[in-house]
Amino acid sequence: xxxxxxxxxxxxxxxxxxxxxxxxxxxxxxxxxxxxxxxxxxxxxxxxxxxxxxxxxxxxxxxxxxxxxxxxxxxxxxxxxxxxxxxxxxxxxxxxxxxxxxxxxxxxxxxxxxxxxxxxxxxxxxxxxxxxxxxxxxxxxxxxxxxxxxxxxxxxxxxxxxxxxxxxxxxxxxxxxxxxxxxxxxxxxxxxxxxxxxxxxxxxxxxxxxxxxxxxxxxxxxxxxxxxxxxxxxxxxxxxxxxxxxxxxxxxxxxxxxxxxxxxxxxxxxxxxxxxxxxxxxxxxxxxxxxxxxxxxxxxxxxxxxxxxxxxxxxxxxxxxxxxxxxxxxxxxxxxxxxxxxxxxxxxxxxxxxxxxxxxxxxxxxxxxxxxxxxxxxxxxxxxxxxxxxxxxxxxxxxxxxxxxxxxxxxx
Length: 412
Prior knowledge:
Blueprint: H1 3-19, H2 24-36, E1 42-47, E2 50-56, E3 62-68, H3 76-91, H4 98-110, H5 116-133, H6 138-160, H7 165-184, H8 191-198, H9 205-216, H10 220-248, H11 265-279, H12 288-311, H13 314-336, H14 341-347, H15 354-366, H16 369-411
Antiparallel strand pairs: 1-2, 2-3
C-alpha cells in the first residue's frame, strides 16, 4: 500500500472540512476514522488554519504531513458534502488509497455557491429584518438593508482580490456606513438603529461563541486563535464605521439615538426567522436545510423570550435558547443524516453577541472605558452561556450514543 497517498488523501479530507468551516473536533475525528479504516492509528492536530497528521506504518516508518488551511467563510453545503464523503469512505475504504484524494478533488469541483445577485438579495433581506429585530422602524430597516447589501457587495469584491480580512472588513464597514448615512441625513432615519442590522453582515458573533466552545472543551490553541480573529474583526468594524461617521459629519448632519419600536414578541420571532432566511445564501445553506435552520433560529429566540421573561436574566435566557437550538439541530441532523453544524450556523444568528462585540469596540475607540468593560464582560457572559448550552446537549447526546452502542454490543 502507498501510505504517502493514504496520508495525502486523509489530509485533503480534513483540510476541506476545516476550509468550509467545520468544527475542529470533526476534522480531527474524520482523519482518525479514515486512517482507522486502513487499520492505522494516527495522531491528528488541527487549528482553524493548519492541520498536522502523522502515523507509523506497519514497517515502522513515520509519515507526517502539515497542511495550511486557507481561511474562508463557512460553507454549510461543503461541510455536508465532505462529511458524507468521509462516511462513505470509512464504510467502504477503497483498495487504492489514492481514490480518497481523487474523491475529495471531485467533490470540491462539484461544489457550487449561489450567484452574486442571490447573495446580495440575501444580505438585504437579512439586514432588513435584523434591523426590525433590533427594534428599528420601517425606514431604518430599508436603510439597514441597503447598507447591509453594500457591505456584502464590498466583501465579495475584496474577497475576489484576496484582500486581507482585516482590511476587507474595515473597508466594507466604512462603505456600508457611508451608504446608511446618506438617507440618515434627511433626519427621518437614525444611524445607530439602521447600522444595527447592517453590520450583522460583518459581525463575528458565531466565531466568538465558537471560541468559548473550544476553550470549554480544553482546545485552548484553537480557542485563542478564534478569539483573536473575532476581536480583530470587531476592531475593524468599529474603525471602519467610526471613521466613516466622522467623515460624513463634516458634510451633513447624522442623527443618532431615536426611540426604539415596541414590537410584539411573536413578531420578533417572525423577524428572527426571516433574518435567518436572508443569511442562508451567504453560508451556502441549500434544500431542506434552509427552512429547518430558520425554524431553529425562531425556536431559539422564542425560548429566550420565554425564559428571560420568567427568570428576568439574559444569561439564563441565552442558555435556555442555546439548549433549544441544540436539541432542534441534533434532531434535524439525525433526520437528514448530516452534521448538526448545518443547522447551528444559521439558527444561532439571532442569539450570538455579534452586535455586542461591535458596541464594546466602539466604546473603546470613543474612550468610554466604563461602558467598554460593561459591554465586553456582558458579551463574554452571553457567549459563555450559549457555549455551555450547546455543550450540555452535545455531551448528553454523546453519552446516550455510547450507552446505546454498549448495550447493542452486549446483546451481540
